[in-house]
Design brief:
Structural class: mainly alpha
Strand order of the largest sheet: 1-4
Pfam family, one: HGSNAT_cat
Shape: globular
Keywords: Acyltransferase, Membrane, Transferase, Transmembrane, Transmembrane helix
Strand content: under 5%
Radius of gyration: 21 Å
Protein name: Acyltransferase family protein
GO molecular function: acyltransferase activity
Order of helices and strands: EHHHHHHHHHHHHEEHHE
Helix content: 55-70%
Oligomer: single chain
Length: 391
C-alpha cells in the first residue's frame, strides 16, 4: 500500500474504488461522492451495537428479496466498474503497455484479496478454518476480471460477455441438476452455487452457513457482470457530448434495467446471497439512477457544499472499509473488568454509554452512527492533508 500526500485536496485525478491508477482523465466528483455514500452505508450496516437489535432496513433480506442494505455491495462493484473505465482509458489506447498494466491490475486485485484474507485470519491466524471468500476478496477478483476485459476488449465484446454471464448463470442455477442432490433449486444449502462452494472450499466458508457462502465462487461470476455494467456506464460518461443527453440516457437505462430485474424476479428471484441475474439488473439499474442524480446535481449543476462528508469517505474507500473491520477485532482483544465479569472493550463502551440512555434499537443504531462520525473526522483530516492510501 502507498500513501501519497500533497496539498491541496484532490480534485483532478481519478482513483479506483478498489485501487488507483494515474490518468489524465478528469475526476468525476459525483463518482467519489456516490462511492462515499456507498462506503458510509457499508460502515453503518456492518457496525451495529447489537446484531440482535437492528432496524429492518439495515438488515439483509433473509433469502429472496432486497432491502436497502442489499444494495450496498452491488453499488460498490458498479462503482468499481465505472472507475475502471476512467482510470484505465489512457492505458487502453497504449497496446504496448498492456502487459505491464495487466500485471498491475493482478497485483492490485491480489492485494485486495490478501487484505480480506488478513481480516478473516486476524487475530488467531488459524488457516485450518479460515473463511476464504469475503467482501474484499470478491472485490479483488471482480476488479481483475473486469479491468482485464476493459483493457483487452471492445465495448461489443464486453456486452456479449455481460449477456453470457447473466443468461449462463440463470441457466446453470435454474435448469442444471445439482450433483448428488437432484433437480435444480434455489434453496440455501442445496443449490448449484452452494454445491460448488462446498466442493471447492469445504471448511473455509461463512461460519453462519458452513456449507455455502454469500461471496462464494460461482456467484462471483454474476458479480463480475455488475462491474461490467459499471464499465459500460463509465465509457458512456467519458464520451464527449452534452451532459444532459448523457444523464437522460443513463436514467432511461437505469429504469430499463430496474424493471428488467423486477420482471426476471418472477422466474429467477432477486437474491443477494446468490447474486442472481435479476439482482444484477435490479441493483445496477438503481445504481445508474443514483449516479445519474449525483452527476446532475454535482458535476452539472455544481451543488457541492453538501458533498464533503461523502467525498472524504469516497477518496479513501478501501482504507476505511479495511480499518473499520480491523479495529473491532482489536477491541475484542482488549478486556475490561466489570462487577459482572470480564468483557471486551466494545461491549463495555456500548453497555456503559449507550444502552442505559437509549432503547435497544436506538442504542444499536447510535453505536453505528458513532462509528460513522469517528471515521469521518479521521478521513476529513486525511482529505485536508490530501492523504490518499493507494492499494
Amino acid at each position: 500500500m502507498q500513501t501519497t500526500t500533497s496539498p491541496p485536496p484532490p480534485q483532478d485525478k481519478t482513483t479506483l474504488g478498489t485501487a488507483s491508477a494515474t490518468t489524465t482523465a478528469p475526476r468525476l466528483r459525483s463518482l467519489d461522492v456516490f462511492r462515499g455514500i456507498t462506503v458510509l452505508a457499508m460502515i453503518l450496516v456492518n457496525n451495529p451495537g447489537n446484531w440482535g437489535k437492528i432496524y429492518p432496513p439495515l438488515k439483509h433480506a433473509a433469502w429472496h428479496g432486497c432491502t436497502p442494505t442489499d444494495l450496498v455491495f452491488p453499488f460498490f462493484l458498479f462503482i468499481v466498474g465505472v472507475s475502471i473505465a476512467y482510470a484505465l482509458s489512457g492505458k487502453k489506447l497504449q497496446p504496448e503497455t498492456h502487459n505491464k498494466t495487466l500485471l498491475r491490475i493482478v497485483r492490485r486485485g491480489l492485494t485486495l484479496f490478501a487484505l480480506g484474507l488478513f481480516l478473516a485470519l486476524f487475530p488467531t491466524f488459524d488457516f485450518t478454518t479460515v473463511r476464504i471468500p469475503g467482501v474484499l476478496q470478491r472485490i479483488g477478483v471482480v476488479f481483475i476480471i473486469a479491468a482485464a476485459l476493459f483493457l483487452k476488449t471492445e465495448r461489443k465484446t464486453q456486452i456479449t460477455v455481460l449477456a453470457v454471464l447473466l443468461v449462463g448463470y440463470w441457466l446453470l442455477m435454474m435448469f442444471v441438476p445439482v450433483p448428488g442432490i437432484g433437480e435444480a433449486n434455489l434453496q440455501p444449502t442445496t443449490n448449484m452455487a452452494a454445491w460448488v462452494d462446498n466442493s471447492l472450499l469445504p471448511g473455509h466458508l461463512w461460519k453462519f452457513s458452513k456449507v455455502w457462502d454469500p461471496e462464494g465462487v460461482l456467484s462471483t461470476l454474476p458479480a463480475v457482470a455488475t462491474a461490467l455494467i459499471g464499465v459500460l456506464v463509465g465509457q458512456w460518461l467519458k464520451k464527449i457530448g452534452d451532459a444532459g443527453n448523457k444523464i437522460a440516457w443513463l436514467m432511461v437505462w437505469g429504469v430499463i434495467c430496474t424493471c428488467a430485474g423486477l420482471i426476471w424476479d418472477l422466474h429467477f428471484p432477486i437474491n443477494k446471497s446468490l447474486w442472481t441475474s435479476s439482482f444484477v439488473l435490479y441493483t445496477a439499474g438503481l445504481a445508474m439512477l443514483g449516479l445519474g442524480l449525483c452527476y446532475w446535481l454535482i458535476d452539472v449543476k455544481g451543488y457541492r457544499r453538501f458533498t464533503t462528508p461523502f467525498l472524504v469517505y469516497g477518496v479513501n474507500a478501501i482504507t476505511v472499509f479495511f480499518l473499520s473491520g480491523l479495529i473491532p477485532r482489536i477491541m475484542a482483544m482488549i478486556k475490561v473488568d466489570t462487577p459482572t465479569g470480564e468483557v471486551d472493550s466494545k461491549t463495555w463502551l456500548y453497555e456503559t454509554f449507550y444502552t442505559p440512555a437509549l432503547s435497544p434499537y436506538n442504542a444499536s443504531l447510535a453505536w453505528a452512527l458513532t462509528w460513522i462520525a469517528f471515521w469521518m473526522v479521521i478521513l476529513y483530516i486525511m482529505y485536508r492533508k490530501n492523504i490518499i492510501i493507494k492499494v
